[in-house]
Amino acid sequence: MDVQQLEETWALRTGAREARLVAAPHVPAALSLLGIVRPGDRLVAFADEFADAFARGFDACDVVLVGEPSIAAFTAASEGFDASFDAEGPHLWWFVNSIGGFGLRVPDLRALGRAAREARALLAVDNTVAGLFGCDPLRLGAALSLEALDRVCAGMAPRKLVVASVARSQLKRHRVDAAAECAHALLEGCGLAKLNLPSDEAGVLERGLDSLDTRMQAHFDRARALAEYLAANEMVRNVRYPGLCSHPDHAVATGILEHGFGPAVEFDLIKRSAGELFDALPGEFRTSPAGGATTRLSAPRGKQGSTVRLFAGTDNPLVVASTLDNALRQLATL
Asked: What is the pLDDT of residues 87-99, one digit of tens each?
């Protein structure tokens, strides 16, 4: 497949009007490179992990970061801005993750989509963690869905890729969705050159799409098993996983997410740092590529912090749990 065919295939899978591939390290960078958020626009974002990326990548825009992925927070941050769905703008953007932020929050995308249109805002969703398999932001009301393709490529892509998908503008009773139509016009006129994708990269992506559903279900199932193990482990605390009843967005997640509750689990160590845990674990837990077969751990608040985020691979969760248990017991004796 060439780039055009890959984009058409992705658009078909997402039910999108069109899709664009971008070489970028993460979704905020891809959104900046697309150039559809223009000078004079206001960008309201719940994106605590990417605060620096928003500050650097959208310096000609009015960027407002909110502390909650709620309608009230986005509406308050949008006050006083005269937004338009006309292609010339000015435009009001709302940006959230389908699963994301510290605590792996799950916003109510249906409610946000309705509220965004009432505020004449374009809702853009970073769907990287849940993935297309786990969430369909365009169906739920987003005008634009963006996803980093590490997991789609099974961690095998030579460089970071992001795909942006635009919602279809035709609604029931022949009504046109002005937000989706505006997003389409902006993407059509963005001026970003078509991505040059060598045949080896295209092959990785094509093969990844063929096996995506099976692999993603494995990621989701193993994440649930590991979340339940961690929730019962006396050596950790505050396990955050949308599938646990203790998660603040559990009720929303059951209506937003599909096939499970995503591949990620977050937890806090007791009196130990993430870096100390990493030192006690085999190196592959840190060095394996994102989205690959091996379970991967990271420190979203830095190695000196106590928070650890786990992205489940397709490896045996019993082996992963045993390895984690040994490392945690080792830390407890220090």
From this structure: 898 999 999 999 9
